[in-house]
Design brief:
This protein is mainly alpha-helical. The protein has one domain. The protein is 73% helix and 0% strand. The chain has 17 helices and no strands. Helix 3 (48-68) packs antiparallel against helix 4 and helix 10 packs antiparallel against helix 16. It starts with a helix and ends with a helix.
């Protein structure tokens, strides 16, 4: 158990120096994944059903790449997505060997440290510039967006979301915890994660604190109706990027176009994705190498995976998360709230494919099988 904690700590706190050398960052990522692998002694048979969608995702990728090779030259960079199913499986296998309660406090602590560092990075950017250099991609410092110990502000927000849900599994102090992590998301200025977080908080209230949800909904609706102009002015003054982004999003939904520097590219990604569906093969198996995408890269995970590997890729990619959600929901474990929030985040940002988050997300999924194993042991002891 001690080794697994060290692996988790290294995954988050390892310096990446992406600003100086993206190649070094990739080596750092690879070293982290190797540590995950080294911690796996034996792969339990119980996780094999969950392994099948990952195999399907790998096969879809291979077929798509082979098909693309008829038109484009394939280079090593085009094969990098093949590593994704293996990273998912590594997380699953490691999670199946541990009890969630034994690592949840560690993950919560990491989330809190991440939030605090992000807060200091926002208030004192020059004094904490070394943290931007150690952990973040270059444009975060330029735009005044703290990333804490993560690569991006989206990963930073995602860690807050995981921390919030883990706290809520065993804690009755909803509002202090909710407001603490919500503040961290406003600091990160990630619109996608703010939406995801509000959805997770709303689902938690609906399912576990329904009376509070009704009261808050009435108060919130009343405040919007009475103080709409004041609220709009405050948001524009203190979080202008986030507020303008939301307004641009609503405008893009109504008009089908946007000149906003953040919303525009994402809208265009969906328009290009839909226009490529005229080819049945592309619809089912995608376009494969993303480097031939005319706009260089796709901002969000959902259209990214769909564009590269089609509807079969999307189904196989999200199936393990969907299965985990139904299992958690059946057990009345608040962790089920994680997937709806993740999926909404993936529609607008790169969330589940995040380098530091993906193995941890599937580690959480893998703990399902450890719980199953313990339940079977207890049942056998009871029968005896």
């Amino acid at each position: 158990m001690k080794k697994i904690r060290i692996v988790i700590l290294f995954n988050f706190f390892r310096p990446t120096f992406y600003t100086f050398s993206p190649a070094f960052a990739r080596v750092s990522d690879f070293a982290s994944y190797l540590l995950f692998v080294s911690s796996i002694r034996k792969i339990p048979k119980s996780i094999l059903p969950m392994f099948m969608p990952l195999v399907a995702y790998l096969v879809v990728q291979i077929i798509s790449i082979i098909y693309a090779a008829n038109t484009y030259s394939i280079i090593i960079k085009d094969l990098i997505p093949l590593a994704v199913p293996f990273i998912m499986f590594i997380g699953l296998a490691l999670g199946s060997k541990i009890n969630l309660s034994s690592v949840s406090s560690l993950l919560i602590s990491i989330a809190i440290v991440n939030v605090c560092l992000g807060f200091f990075m926002l208030l004192y950017p020059e004094q904490f510039k070394f943290l931007y250099t150690l952990f973040n991609v270059p444009n975060l410092f330029q735009h005044g967006r703290p990333g804490g110990i993560m690569y991006t502000h989206t990963e930073y927000g995602m860690m807050s979301l995981i921390g919030f849900i883990l706290v809520m599994r065993n804690n009755n102090y909803f509002w202090p915890v909710f407001c603490f992590f919500l503040f961290s998301l406003v600091v990160s200025m990630s619109k996608a994660i703010i939406i995801s977080y509000l959805i997770s908080g709303g689902l938690y209230l609906i399912c576990y604190r329904r009376s509070q949800f009704i009261i808050i909904s009435i108060l919130f609706a009343s405040a919007i109706f009475v103080f709409s102009s004041l609220i709009s002015q405050l948001l524009l003054e203190y979080v202008p990027y986030v507020w303008r982004g939301f307004l641009a999003t609503f405008d893009a939904i109504q008009s089908g176009q946007s000149n906003d520097g953040s919303v525009g590219p994402r809208l265009n990604d969906y328009l290009v994705l839909i226009s490529s569906w005229d080819d049945p093969f592309v619809f089912f198996l995608g376009n494969s190498p993303l480097r031939y995408y005319e706009f260089s890269y796709i901002e969000s995970t959902f259209p990214n995976v769909f564009f590269r590997f089609g509807v079969l890729g999307i189904i196989s990619y999200y199936t393990p998360m969907l299965i985990a959600t139904f299992i958690w929901l059946k057990r009345n474990d608040p962790l089920w709230i994680l997937f709806p929030a993740l999926f909404v985040g993936d529609l607008f940002a790169n969330v589940t494919e995040s380098v530091k988050i993906m193995p941890i997300l599937f580690l959480l999924i893998g703990t399902i099988f450890y719980a199953d194993k313990q339940n079977r042991k207890l049942k056998r002891l009871g029968d005896e």
